[in-house]
Amino acid sequence: MFKDYYQILIGICKTKSQRYHKKNHKVHIDIKDFMEYLYFIYICNPVKTAYFKRGNPMGKENTIEINGNHFSFEPGETILEVAQKNNIFIPTLCHLKGATPTGSCRICVVEVEGARSLVASCAAPAARNMVVHTESPEVIKARRTIIRLLLSSGNHNCAIRDFDSKDWTQFQLRVLEEDGNEDLCPAWGDCKLQDLAYRYQVKTKGLPLSECQYPIEKVNPFIIRDFSRCILCGRCVQACREIQVNNAIDFGHRGANTKIIAGTDVALKDSDCVFCGQCVEVCPVGALTSTHDLELERFAKTKKVRTTCTFCGVGCQVEMTVQNNKIVKMASAGEDVAPNHGRLCVKGRYGFAFVGSPERITVPMIRKNGKLEGVTWDEALDLVASKFTGIKDEFGPDSLGVFTSARITNEENYIAQKFTRAVLKTNNVDHCARL
Amino acid sequence: MTNTIGDIETADVIIVEGSNTTENHPVISTFIKRAATLKGATLIVIDPRRLKLTESADKWLRLQPGTDIALINGFMHVLIEEDIYDKKFVETRTEGFEELKKTVKKYTPEYVEKITGVAAEDIVNTARTFAAAKRGCIVYCMGITQHTTGTDNVKSLANLSMLCGDLGIPGGGVNPLRGQNNVQGACDMGGLPNVFTAYQKVDGDDARIKYENAWDITGLSPKPGLAVTEMVQKAGEGELKALYIIGENPLVSDPDLNHAEKAFKNLDFLVVQDIFLTETTALADVVLPSFCFAEKNGTFTNTERRVQRVRKAVEAPGFARRDWKIICDIANRMGYPMNYPNANAIFEEIRLVTPSYAGITWERIEKEGIFWPCPTENHPGTPVLHAKQFTRGKGLFHAIDHRDPAEMTDEEYPFILTTGRLLFQYHTGTMTMKSAGLNFLAPECFVEISVNDAERLGLENGDLVDVVSRRGKIKTKAKISPKAVDGTLFIPFHFANAAANRLTNAKLDPVAKIPEFKVCAINIRKAA
Ligand code: SF4
Ligand code: SF4
Ligand code: SF4
Ligand code: FES
């Protein structure tokens, strides 16, 4: 419930600002939306919770109380899982579905009555009659501290740092101004840390930016590693190790020098990395980005289309991001979507350049004097039809053949075999499945 | 696949045979690796090359290329000899067991070791491990099928699975991995010379009459047609006059290319419909530009028989047209009306004539794909095949003997060549080679050779070499690799300028008509 309002509002704020391209200097003031957002977070939420309060099913086995409501759970489920199942928002950063919880970021802490300290909900199993508060003042205080620390630990220059809720317009203006500036974090607008800073109203104004001792790595074609924005949540390591099982990256250089390293701290391209991009997909901030992301226009009209990968037979479900009739990004359709459950490989994720390639054939062609020349569709189709008819009449239907394709759709394959059988009157139809 | 991809993570023992999964089906390999490293499954990899996947495996069995049947018979010999096969399954669900028993009698571990090169002890242990599994899963790919014994290799794996009672249960099954996005769908849709949709035989009167009625036509041919490889042959002999090729590039992917090239040149009329100019369009009389997957609506069927949506995201370039629209336009001009308002209307027609797809609608698969068979609209689909019975009733054991590959090594051609794909390229490279990034990671062809062989021939990494077979010759670079095993060389077939298929043997499996890409005899020497 809570999460939904929050997302709708962030959505409103973002689309509104997107409507104003940076060249348009007349920026609309979104302060009203923003006040509304604050209202939902701080005022409306307890009301809503009370409204949806259910009867107390005490006495029933395996129930847990969260924010005054009772929910049943399966043994082994974590507090976070129970909350998510029931649409109760708990923020997470390091938690990765399908991998062993590491409990390293602690942003997911909740208050459990009777416990000595706050509990990381992503790692703590739900227990019978547990009483949990997900947004108590103490919890919020803890989260704010964590977010402030994370923001000041790196180069989080997405303007959220200096953001003052009283000065929303100035903030918007500055973002528009800074956009196009190469140094602005590419994850802007798609960053969990940024979202959380909004949500919990964290300001780091005045705190110095910490210098990063490791340079950006760009020496491979697909993945940019910007260590200055890494919050060391370890999601990428979990994804590489437990989701894709490629074991290419790990934590290295302990202590204050800690860094995510590939192999013995070499470039990704010289390590075991296979460029599946899973680490990029799970990185909650702008530390890991795709080179393609640089092509994303921040304020252009964006369309997302779910489809099936076109390379191998796994049939991974992907989400294409389209701007200006061009695919700019390919991501998985989500960790809950079969058959790939959030995973993709290098071809599926990064191999889409062919779609918009200037080498695509754009006109029908006929060979004239040994050379292929562009012609109209009518000319090409007439020639094909008359040649097929002529050869069929002269040499019989079995002198014709069709290679249909393992690359085209079911509908198209059906039409190809129907054409071969019903029109050419032969069964000479096959595809290159065997090759 | 008889089972689902997700099922793999629930298996106790997984045998992966003839599949370089991490490169060809990377996402499926994550399920296998997770099962082995996080969920405690035992993983056994059977392959001539020391594949990446062997790093996650409990055991790698290195067999001589083309000896799969002998090895599997060896496993079955042990199962029967030690009386550890699934007797209940064999009794109630199968027939032909006595025949099988007789045939595998002579495949003692010692005898099999001589043929396959796999140690007798490993054969015994693997058989025991697989028999002990509650859910034993077999995964295979082109390393099994691209042999002159391909069909028999597949049947042998089915034998093994039945003998252990692993068919029809979640986490078990015999699971072929399909190489291209819609191979499964192309087959289901009757893109095969002997069957209509859903494998209804063209020489069966019932199916033909049903189709004649559905298509409002008479005189459908009852004579099974020619397979791709046979069409190429007939073109060479002058019997096939015209060919219409849709979205394929056989002039890189076909075996024995030198021969195939001659055959294509011999055609009277060649039409190629594709999204790029290719080695094949170079010989075409007419080239028709079509849409790619991101420009159209429709469905693909993946390797686990799941029918999934494809959706339009961008507009196609220039004057390109939908593949189905082009075909329909030709049909209309030839006097047979074929008109559909959209792809969904075609799918509705497919449902009428295809029992296994009858219950699937675009609406039902909007969010998640459905596994065929799905006969009615309230049927949930079938994730696991053969749960209660086989298509033919009882499962039939096939008693099969080992046969040598069509071409064996000799003094003149002392090495075995095996071909395949790389992670960063795809098939003939028409699509992947348009990506600068993928080309950066896999820029050119190479021949993978073992450290010992390279040393013996005086080769250094990156040396230019000539690779020759009885059919052709290519020039490429030597790549000394720990993946290679002495005596066996590997060349990826993606690269047209050093096309591995100039070397390969076009000898076919008699039933499936699949060429023997995985074994041929070659020689290699430093280029002059
Ligand atoms: S791209 Fe894939 S293999 Fe490479 S580090 Fe990231 S998760 Fe690991
Ligand atoms: S790179 Fe991203 S995912 Fe990895 S530890 Fe840093 S912030 Fe977390
Ligand atoms: S993303 Fe990779 S594994 Fe998945 S379907 Fe595409 S090519 Fe296959
Ligand atoms: S999300 Fe729970 S500790 Fe990080």
Provide structural commentary.
The complex is a heterodimer of chains A (435) and B (528). Chain A is an alpha+beta fold. Chain A folds into four domains: 2-135, Beta-grasp domain (Ubiquitin-like (UB roll), Roll); 145-295, Alpha-Beta Plaits; 302-356, N-terminal domain of TfIIb; 365-434, no CATH class. In chain A, 31% of the residues lie in helices and 15% in strands. Chain A is built from eleven helices and 16 strands. Chain A has helices spanning 2-19, 31-51, 79-85, 137-153, 168-178, 192-199, 235-243, 278-282, 346-350, 377-395, 410-424; strands spanning 63-66, 69-72, 109-112, 119-120, 131-133, 223-225, 249-252, 259-262, 288-290, 302-308, 317-323, 326-332, 365-368, 371-374, 400-403, 429-430. In chain A, the strands form six sheets. Chain A has a five-stranded mixed beta sheet, covered by helices on one side. Chain A has a three-stranded antiparallel beta sheet with strand order 10-11-12. Chain A has a two-stranded antiparallel ribbon with strand order 6-9. In chain A, a hairpin with a 6-residue loop joins β7 (249-252) and β8 (259-262). In chain A, α1 runs antiparallel to α2. The longest helix of chain A has 21 residues, at 31-51. The two termini of chain A are 52 Å apart. Mean pLDDT of chain A is 82; it is low at 1-59. With 528 residues, chain B is of the alpha/beta class. Among the domains of chain B are: 6-177, Dimethylsulfoxide Reductase, domain 2; 415-526, Barwin-like endoglucanases. Helix content of chain B is 30%, strand content 16%. In chain B, the strands form five sheets. In chain B, strands 15-17-16-19-14-18 form a six-stranded mixed beta sheet. In chain B, strands 3-2-1-5-6 form a five-stranded parallel beta sheet, sandwiched between helices. In chain B, β16 (464-468) and β17 (473-480) form a beta hairpin. Residues 239-240, 244, 246, 248-249, 268, 273-279 of chain A line the site of one iron/sulfur cluster (SF4).
